[in-house]
Amino acid sequence: MSRKYMFLAMLAALVMVFALAACGGGGGAEETGGGDAVPPPAEQEVASAGDPEAGKQQFDMVCIACHGPGGVGVEGLGKPFTTSEFLLTVDDQELLEFVKTGRPVGHPDNTTGVDMPPKGGNPALTDEQLLDIIAYIRTLHE
Ligand code: HEC
Predict the structure, then answer these.
(1) pTM higher than 0.90
(2) What is the rounded average pLDDT of the residues 79-99?
(3) How remote is the C-alpha of 98 from its chain's centroid?
(4) CATH code at position 96
(5) If pLDDT is split at 50, 70 and 90, which confidence band does 3 have?
(6) In a domain, 40, yes or no
(7) How far is residue 80's CA from residue 64's CA, in Å, rounded to a whole number?
(8) Does one domain contain both 63 and 128?
(9) Pocket of ligand 1 contains residue 135 by CB under 6 Å
(10) Does residue 56 line the site of ligand 1, with CB under 6 A?
(11) Is 50 in the pocket of ligand 1 (CB under 6 A)?
(12) CA of 16 to the centre of ligand 1 (A)
């Protein structure tokens, strides 16, 4: 008989532990759960990693020639970023692809009759630098 009570007592204790973990634990329950650990966060989207400060330095060397200081645009050259609708409709990844590809005169979206050269004509720019530039030009919109 006493063995049976022992068993019941242990069972009760177990039930308590589970109940506590389920009710009070919240996030803590996951840690003690064992099997179903939260997977590590997916590889950070490079897209949001841009550093606008570093981007400004690159911009002022490469893009400024056509897009002007602070992205105000240059008549007959690059379009302004301060009023660009386009910048508001694309995410960073799409913008990265855009800047890498450019928008030649023959492109249906070209409105100026002037080439937007791939990477602003500076093929040495890395994706990371371009994302910095993108983070910077996103700060220019009025
Ligand atoms: C040689 C001149 C030139 C340089 C240098 C240049 N661009 Fe451009 N860019 C243009 C022209 C011209 C357009 C507009 C093309 C058109 O008619 O749609 C443009 C358009 C753009 C647009 C689209 C704007 C919109 O509202 O449609 C983005 C974004 C852009 N450029 C980013 C950059 C970045 C970033 C750099 C530097 C890495 C850069 N450009 C360097 C000439 C240039």
Answers:
(1) no
(2) 96
(3) 16
(4) 1.10.760.10
(5) confident
(6) no
(7) 11
(8) yes
(9) no
(10) no
(11) no
(12) 65
